[in-house]
Write a structure and sequence with these properties.
By secondary structure, this protein is an alpha/beta fold. The protein has one domain: Collagenase (Catalytic Domain) (3-Layer(aba) Sandwich), CATH 3.40.390.10. The chain is about 35% helix and about 20% strand. The protein contains five helices and eight strands, in the order βαβββαββββααα. The strands form two sheets. Strands 2-1-5-8-7 form a five-stranded mixed sheet, sandwiched between helices. The protein binds zinc ion (2 copies). One zinc ion binds next to α5. The site of one zinc ion has 8 residues, from α5.
Length: about 170
Amino acid sequence: MYIYLVTFGNIEKRLLFGIAKNVKETFGFEVRLSSVASPLKHAYDHERKQYVGEKILDYLSTLNYPELLKILALISWDMYAEGFNFVFGLAKIQGREAVVSTFRLFSRDERLFFERVFKEVNHELGHTFGLGHCPDRRCVMSFSNSIDDTDHKSKNFCTSCKTKLKTAIAELTF
Ligand SMILES: [Zn+2]
Ligand SMILES: [Zn+2]
């Protein structure tokens, strides 16, 4: 089983390889990188000049690859979801699809920028494994309302979330 990464927009290779390594370490699954031809035109909101997270998830649900476990899209443009001015990411809870926008995570400090993306990727993939938001502000599953929230949390799961994640993964593989 693989976690597939697809990219839209300008996502540098170094970041992708970093994500692949981080996902493997965190979730134990190999990552496959895949390119998608669609320019995602239908998922763009021209009035708000942002992509619509739900529409990207819907598009991802139409894709299929060999031994696909989860599919995560990375987009370099700004994104929102219903009820929010913007979102860093969105996922189907206990589902297959997730998306992270790097737009508001960007920093000239590459280490900081990559670290933020790893956190949001872990967070959204956590949702796909059935995890909800966590009250522990250091836990990667705590909700980020701002970039300060993202910077405050770690990229790791708290003990309680880690247990839930392990159980969810064990149920999948056995
Ligand atoms: Zn969340
Ligand atoms: Zn937690």
